[in-house]
Sequence to fold (87 residues):
Amino acid sequence: MPIEEILTLIRARPFIPFRIHLLDGRTFDVLHPELVMPGARSVLVGWSADPALPFFDPGRHEIVSLLAVSRLEPLPTLQPSGDGQSG
Fold:
């Protein structure tokens, strides 16, 4: 996976959350651009116990070789459930 593809997604404004698919079947959801640190041959992906936070918890990160990334996929936007009316 070329690092430029990940950089394009991280730099997009507005940012659109995306999923990183690995060749071994694992996936990582990137909900904030601050949770990804790209490198020359790898990318550090962090995650938080609270998806609303733009920083990762200690010990909750993975360094992934760019050679292991099979594809990137935008995450679907959340749609309100129900008809939007209360009661």
Notes: The first helix runs from residue 3 to 11. The helical segments are 3-11.
